[in-house]
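Anyone? Bumping this.
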Amino acid sequence: MNSEEALSALCTPALVVDLDKVKRNAEKMIERCQNLGVQLRPHMKTHKTLECADILTGGSRRCIVVSTLAEACFYADHGFDDILYAYSLPFDKVERCAALAERLDLFQVLLDHPHALDQLIKRPLKDGRLWRTEGAELTGVYAHCGNTYNCRGVEQIQAVAQETTDLTLQFMEKLKAAGVTCKSSIGSTPSCSHPVKDMAQLSEVHPGNYGFYDVQQSVIGSCTLKDVAVRVLTRVIGHCPHRNQLLIDCGWSGLSLDGAGKLPTGYAVIEGHPNLKLLSMTQEHGRVEPISGLLDYGKYPLGSLLTLIPYHSCASVAMHPVYYVHSEGRLLGKWTPTRGC
Amino acid sequence: MNSEEALSALCTPALVVDLDKVKRNAEKMIERCQNLGVQLRPHMKTHKTLECADILTGGSRRCIVVSTLAEACFYADHGFDDILYAYSLPFDKVERCAALAERLDLFQVLLDHPHALDQLIKRPLKDGRLWRTEGAELTGVYAHCGNTYNCRGVEQIQAVAQETTDLTLQFMEKLKAAGVTCKSSIGSTPSCSHPVKDMAQLSEVHPGNYGFYDVQQSVIGSCTLKDVAVRVLTRVIGHCPHRNQLLIDCGWSGLSLDGAGKLPTGYAVIEGHPNLKLLSMTQEHGRVEPISGLLDYGKYPLGSLLTLIPYHSCASVAMHPVYYVHSEGRLLGKWTPTRGC
């Protein structure tokens, strides 16, 4: 890609990533975890790219979480190791998990049912490797404080972070009393963006969305809108004065339908245009209308660019086979995510 | 792929296509158009694959509609021609359109604004080719009776089909009176599934969803649920008796969020289980609950398969990088769609 090429020359809809913001978000999280003295195990499920994984792991390519085996294989194929598959062992994927456990130094799976343990034991590993479950040896305890997503503001986030930490540590104490010592890991981008001191007593944390953040995280209070590193660029392609609407070239194939009904501005925040609402989307079209008043079409000529800040970045970047990466509007290259299960 | 491999051995969530149903849906549409004496120009936007395009065009690889230039290039690269880009000419894509017009025998673009005509004229074609717009020569008129999607039943569909046909033919008469003779094309899967006689006076029709169909089309009345050729296979991965719910391994990365609130059974119809509702989805998890009563967990052991019929096939297949194709449950191979804009 010609580095002189401007962001505004991209065919739309285009998913663009602000590299400086990703780096800043990553550095802050790394620093936060260092200050706490807790191991950071970043989740890959939002971006699913090698480049962002390098940034989030500080270049170590070690100690990551994935949500699919497609991700696990993708990262394993590119020299990543110490991969935790954060999904209660699916019975159709035991063989693929075993293959990963045999080729990596460390591949961790989650169990949430005795039947899952039976499934593992039925598939012994080659070369003298062991699932670290026989004889009930537990590697660790993993929790996701998903209820932070109902929080509004730092105080509420930290209350949930505290509660999850307390419950996890109490559980660790019970395990210890029963003679089991193991690791502990909790996660969620909100709680790791505003950690409480007691999280220092955990072994690991595993946030994921924070590399990109999104409008949802800004509403929760994990970040400000300025920290959000991703945008969907779209163009005005139609004027519909009879409906007081604009048509844009971004439909649900460019921006997720996730977040319906959550924002006064519809499916996204339209940067620099707080009075515009992304009302609805079909496959390749979006309908935009003013929250109040009549549209001034002179401000939105055909072909002009609008910038959408996604409600949920995990869901919106999932619609794009490629992300365009820039620094201060100068295109640097493309990131290609992995897909599938 | 081993042809003996069973559908039930696929890792889930998996998008599966019933080849026999696709062929039957395609044959019926071809026959319907032949009987009417109207040219069928199938839309590729639902499936975006070569294999399905071959079936829908009866192997001719001619006379198709696409919704993106990614599709246009994909089909042009594989020997398809006479491609209509059914999108009002986007100003950022004039150069890409021109390149397609220069390499294909026939590449058609839509104009809905005088400014778009200016954009074309500013980019003359090479080798003596002409945009067939200079001197205001019009190739045709294109309409999409999207309001058929509000219909319920054949009578309502045909009323809209009749209205759209009448309006289009009246417009053609006006053009003729002004000395302009050109083609006419209307579309939508509902109206083309139940055409009215007067559609014979049009040049072309351009339905798209009918190769796969979906629950939405069955609700409209375009087809029956038995005609729907696509499914998402998913597995039970958790029992949550405290919530009277099951967890399945299909979230919004396997099934579109489109259709929220439209069906009593949630985001899909769960085949063979009319009392189950797909209540909500996160990235890789779905929550299923009974419409009434308590779940009998014995009927849904961990690892067992459930089959989702998507509300909107265009949106759900868009979440899958590959489709698994079968005949009567025997896996035949994979189809790989194109993506992007």
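Late reply, but here is one note on the structure posted above: The first strand of chain A starts at residue 14 and ends at 18.
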